[in-house]
Amino acid sequence: MDYPLPLSSQLQPLLKSLRKARRLTQAQLAQRLGVVQSRVADIERNPGAISVEQLLQLLALLDAQLVVRDVPPPPAGPATLTGDVSASPPRGQW
Q1: How far apart are CA 50 and CA 8, in angstroms?
Q2: Residue 43 belongs to a domain with what CATH number?
Q3: How far apart are CA 85 and CA 81, in angstroms?
Q4: Cα–Cα separations (whole angstroms), residue 45 to 10, 23, 26, 77, 91
Q5: Fewer Cβ within 10 Å of end Cβ, the chain: N or C?
Q6: Has residue 76 been placed in a domain?
Q7: Is the residue at 71 inside a domain?
Q8: pLDDT in tens, 2-60
Q9: HTH cro/C1-type domain location, by residue (predicted)?
Q10: What is the pLDDT of residue 79?
Q11: Total count of domains within the chain
Q12: How many Cβ atoms from other residues are within 10 Å of residue 39's Cβ?
């Protein structure tokens, strides 16, 4: 299942949820990652401070992966007037 995350703060519940779904404690995950348990706690508390390399390692250990998806911009709306519509019209018009 895909979980789009536009903000790094949204990683917090996802990482914890993935770890728990794999029935791993922070200490077990830390051992597999080669760090101390408090580092895993720090990552879960503030995932925006993790390096991309460590995030990729962590996700791999949780049987997950980072996916970068090219999202096309929304279609352009109806044509709009240019310029300041509140300004007076040029002399000789209206």
Answers
A1: 10
A2: 1.10.260.40
A3: 8
A4: 11, 19, 12, 40, 62
A5: N
A6: no
A7: no
A8: 777 777 778 889 999 999 999 999 999 999 999 999 999 999 998 888 889 999 999 99
A9: 15-69
A10: 61
A11: 1
A12: 16
Distance between CA 31 and CA 82 in Å, rounded? 60
pLDDT at 8: 76
Task: Render pLDDT for 67-90 as a digit per residue (tens, 0 to 9).
Answer: 887 878 888 877 655 554 444 445
- What residues contact 1, with CB distance under 8 A and at least 6 apart? none
> pTM here?
0.68
| Contact criterion met (CB below 8 Å) for 37 and 43 | no
Rounded CA-CA distance 90/87 in Å is 9
Cα 49 to Cα 46: distance, rounded to the nearest angstrom? 6
Domain span holding position 20:
8-61
